[in-house]
């Protein structure tokens, strides 16, 4: 029993340590993005769709072999908008500013409650379409007014 507590203490202490700055890569990413032109954001997201279209869904995946919804959001905002977002949908649902659905702009994050404890995230391309990773079709564009998505809609958040 003592070994378990000791091991837990060592692991937790290791996670809490600040990394040596000489070993940490310098990153141009920020958690605050400057305001972006909506048309430019839309074109960027459509280009991202073309580059990733059809890449399959893979829970926990983060590359072209497969990725999940929050990974696509995280890598898109890092690569194209120099914005560091959390890796998980739960974390992403806490960033930015909540906005009414009627005020949606390209680049806003859209969240859905797809099950009792399941969440899904996508990126609004325009007033009606969003880019996301479908569990059955991979990276796709979908319509926000689709009955399934309308039924499971949760919130919008502005991060750009």
UniProtKB/TrEMBL annotation:
NlpC/P60 domain boundaries: 39-160
GO biological processes: proteolysis
Protein name per UniProt: Probable lipoprotein NlpC
Record SUPFAM superfamilies: Cysteine proteinases (SSF54001)
Family: Belongs to the peptidase C40 family.
Pfam families: NLPC_P60
Keyword line: Hydrolase, Lipoprotein, Protease, Signal, Thiol protease
């Amino acid at each position: 029993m003592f070994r378990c507590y000791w091991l837990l203490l060592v692991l937790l202490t290791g996670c809490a340590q600040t990394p040596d700055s000489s070993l940490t890569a310098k990153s141009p990413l920020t958690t605050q993005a400057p305001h972006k032109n909506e048309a430019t954001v839309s074109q960027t997201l459509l280009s991202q769709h073309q580059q990733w279209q059809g890449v399959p869904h893979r829970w926990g995946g983060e590359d072209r072999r497969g990725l999940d919804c929050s990974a696509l959001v995280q890598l898109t905002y890092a690569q194209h908008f120099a914005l560091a977002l959390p890796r998980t949908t739960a974390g992403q649902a806490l960033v930015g500013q909540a906005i009414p659905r009627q005020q949606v702009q390209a680049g806003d994050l859209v969240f859905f409650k797809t099950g009792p404890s399941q969440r899904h995230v996508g990126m609004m391309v325009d007033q009606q379409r969003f880019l996301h990773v479908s569990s059955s079709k991979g990276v796709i564009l979908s319509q926000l007014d689709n009955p399934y998505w309308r039924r499971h809609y949760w919130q919008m958040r502005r991060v750009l």
